[in-house]
């Protein structure tokens, strides 16, 4: 899962980033209004942590632009503004949650997981398909009830495919989601190919009833056998 932290307080931004990375999230950052606008309209994120008071602009304007553009990222406002009017305005503009500074990082992590469960997993913590169950929070894969070991990238790739089952996934979108925003500057996508090759081998060896098909020249599609 890929998170964008829009926060201009350097120490707080770094603390949030490190805390979320310990939970195995891929974390990108933006320090001001313009950098944030570039990020949210070039890349896709599973969740955006949005400060309201930013250099050069307001986080609420970013939220408004996101909703007008029809982008569906989860947004959690993190702000020192704690009046009832501020919280109501943020939620009415489309934020999924509002957390007032100062806050415990453990509470922020819990709220991020909660909004992701609501959006992607209908409130559950695991994705089930055919004879697979992928636990998003424990980061485990069971096939026919037996544990299958995956490295971090293999888990994130499978998670992305399961969330987009039967859809065509292009290599650029997959690389950005699993390796980060700067992966679009790579000379080739060989690193994607090798991880998928290893993942396919593991899925085949454990008898998984799914398959990652190649779509020539474009990307991949996960299908149930």
Q: Can you offer a commentary on this structure?
A:
By secondary structure, this protein is an alpha/beta fold. The chain has helices at about 10-20, 35-40, 60-70, 85-90, 105-120, 150-165, 170-180, 190-205; strands spanning about 1-5, 25-30, 45-50, 55, 55-60, 75-80, 95-100, 125-130, 130-135, 140-145, 145-150, 170, 210-215, 220-225. A hairpin with a 2-residue loop joins strand 10 and strand 11 (about 145-150). It is globular. It is about 40% helix and about 25% strand. The two termini are about 25 Å apart. The model has no long low-confidence stretch (mean pLDDT about 95). The protein is built from 8 helices and 14 strands. The strands form 4 sheets. Strands 2-1-3-6-7 form a 5-stranded parallel β-sheet, with helices on both faces. Strands 8-9-10-11 form a 4-stranded antiparallel β-sheet, covered by helices on one side. Helix 1 (about 10-20) packs across helix 5, helix 6 crosses helix 7 (about 170-180) and helix 6 packs across helix 8.
Strand-residue fraction? 25-35%
Structural class: alpha/beta
What series of H and E elements makes up the topology?
A: EHEHEEEHEHEHEEEEHEHHEE
The count of strands amounts to 14
Which of globular, elongated, flat, extended, rod-shaped describes the shape?
globular
N-C termini distance: 26 Å
Strand order of the largest sheet: 2-1-3-6-7
What about the largest sheet? 5 strands, parallel
Rg on CA atoms, Å = 18 Å
Assembly state (oligomeric): single chain
Provide a count of the helices: 8
Mean pLDDT: 93
Low-pLDDT residue spans:
none
> Helicity, in percent?
40-55%
